[in-house]
Recover the amino acids of this structure.
């Protein structure tokens, strides 16, 4: 059996079984995408699939999925707070089954539902407003009282013992988790098959601009001429924007996540609590996947801290006392490009041919394929799709911030 | 890599005692600034990947505001700056 497989493997040749291939870098491409994360790969894939634009290069400094795309906790949902944001996430959530078929890759979409807890009457009122918005937009979401929360997730402690007793929760049945690495690999393979070049271990060092228009990018492996550049550099999107003289309303903060040793299946939903700054789900392997602490000062380090491990252990044990004694197995950090209104920047820019798909903070995994699809349409046609209009960079100058938070986030002592 | 920050008043302390107070920027003249320039001042940051000058506040300590140069790649403070009481 093994021999037969190996023979076939040898006959086909190593190149054929690889999911994506290496190519020499061409001196010019129709479009260059900076960043081989999910947003960049998705845009590349849909440029090829929907618009026949296959003379496209994805430039990745390290390896694809090195950024947030390979470090996130894989939660997907579409119960955002504002009516401008919900349509994109809603379409994005509905896209997973389609992608699994189309890319012929098991993305392990597990629509187990999300339960977001409230710990006071005021928090409950806020969640009820979010529930109402979702319902008006046709997204399944409902408010549960504490007893109903416990029926859904029996291991929750709904007594008055926890520091912040559970008051109720926002239940969103269609959300869940998706295997993030698989999405990276599937989109890369899909783009590769369309003829798109993925250049790993290649760093964009500068972007060339003439008369207000992009003309090329300078990489450590040579210069590429191109009239179109997409900044999909995640945590490094401010660095890349600086290359064309654009400052972004972004603060780059490191975010940490943890997984426990594998446990018997007991948690069948994604449970989250803003008050505890914690969320958890159980992977199909049995590990409790949990986040997320953000160090409230900017840095480009992907450090992990004892401070956070302690915080997380305390929060999880308070919410679900059965976790006492469970051991953490791994911890890691990633960069988040946070905006003041917790909504992304999917936008054109004052520089002709320079587009932005960034500012996704700690919530940009779930929306990557759908955003790439619309971004590709924008790049290929030059017309901004209606669904992306709320996310323009201009909204900050126009004092028209998105309403994803009740108050503007500004990473200072006052929040 | 460091998790210490030096308060001009208290000396080196655990960085979790502090709050980040934003990048040091030049505040525009409020009487003449345009609405757009004010928005830029409020929202835009440089996010230097390297050494940048920032405001910090010793929130869980003496309450001092101070400016410091810090390397955002390893959290190491570079030079201590003036103390703005
Ligand atoms: C711990 C953690 C948990 C998270 N959990 C969730 C979650 O549960 N759900 C959710 O929806 N989102 C989550 N997120 C957020 C999500 O991971 C990101 O928003 C998303 O991955 C962003 O994708 P991206 O393609 O924009 O950027 P990235 O995946 O960061 O990709 C950017 C790429 O650009 C490359 N790059 C940077 N500079 C250059 C350059 N100059 N030249 C070439 N390449 C360059 C980088 O190496 C990187 O690979 C989480 C994030 C973290 C860190
Ligand atoms: Zn002090």
């Amino acid at each position: 059996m093994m021999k037969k497989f190996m023979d076939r493997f040898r006959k086909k040749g190593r190149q054929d079984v690889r999911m994506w291939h290496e190519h020499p870098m061409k001196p010019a491409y129709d479009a260059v995408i900076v960043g081989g994360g999910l947003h960049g790969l998705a845009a590349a894939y849909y440029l090829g699939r929907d618009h026949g634009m296959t003379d496209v290069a994805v430039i990745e400094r390290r390896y694809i999925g090195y950024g947030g795309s390979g470090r996130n906790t894989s939660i997907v949902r579409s119960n955002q707070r504002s009516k401008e944001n919900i349509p994109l996430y809603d379409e994005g959530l509905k896209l997973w089954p389609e992608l699994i078929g189309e890319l012929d890759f098991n993305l392990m979409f597990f629509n187990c539902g999300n339960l977001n807890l409230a710990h006071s009457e005021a928090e409950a009122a806020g969640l009820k407003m979010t529930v109402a918005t979702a319902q008006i937009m046709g997204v399944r979401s409902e408010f549960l009282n504490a007893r109903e929360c416990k029926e859904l997730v029996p291991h929750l402690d709904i007594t008055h013992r926890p520091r912040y007793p559970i008051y109720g929760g926002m239940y969103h049945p269609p959300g869940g988790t998706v295997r993030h690495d698989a999405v990276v690999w599937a989109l890369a393979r899909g783009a590769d098959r369309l003829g798109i070049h993925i250049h790993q271990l290649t760093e964009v060092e500068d972007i060339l601009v003439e008369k207000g228009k992009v003309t090329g990018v300078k990489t450590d492996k040579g210069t590429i001429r191109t009239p179109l550049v997409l900044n999909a550099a995640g945590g490094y999107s401010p660095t890349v924007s600086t290359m064309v003289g654009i400052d972004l309303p972004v603060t780059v903060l490191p975010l940490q996540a943890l997984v426990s040793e594998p446990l018997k299946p007991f948690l069948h939903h994604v449970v989250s609590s803003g008050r505890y700054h914690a969320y958890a789900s159980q992977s199909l392997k049995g590990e409790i996947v949990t986040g997320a602490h953000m160090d409230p000062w900017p840095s480009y380090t992907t450090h992990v801290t004892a401070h956070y491990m302690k915080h997380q252990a305390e929060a999880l044990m308070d919410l679900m006392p059965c976790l006492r004694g469970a051991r953490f197995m791994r911890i890691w950090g990633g960069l988040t490009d946070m905006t003041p209104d917790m909504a992304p920047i999917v936008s054109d820019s004052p520089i002709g041919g320079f587009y932005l798909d960034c500012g996704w903070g700690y919530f940009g995994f779930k929306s990557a394929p759908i955003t790439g699809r619309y971004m590709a349409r924008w790049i290929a046609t030059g017309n901004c799709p209606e669904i992306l209009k709320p996310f323009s960079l201009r909204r900050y100058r126009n004092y028209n911030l998105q309403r994803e938070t009740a108050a503007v986030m500004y990473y200072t002592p006052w929040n | 890599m460091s998790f210490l920050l030096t308060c001009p008043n208290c000396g080196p302390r655990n960085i979790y005692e502090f709050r980040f107070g934003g990048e040091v920027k030049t505040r525009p003249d409020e009487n003449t600034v345009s609405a757009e320039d004010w928005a830029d001042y409020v929202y835009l940051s440089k996010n230097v990947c390297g050494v940048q000058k920032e405001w910090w506040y010793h929130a869980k300590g003496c309450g001092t505001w101070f400016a410091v140069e810090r390397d955002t790649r390893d959290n190491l403070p570079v030079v201590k700056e003036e103390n703005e009481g």
Summary: Chain A is about 30% helix and 25% strand. Chain A has two domains: 28-109+175-249+340-415, 110-174+251-339. Chain A has a mean pLDDT of 94. The domain at 28-109+175-249+340-415 of chain A is CATH 3.50.50.60 (FAD/NAD(P)-binding domain).
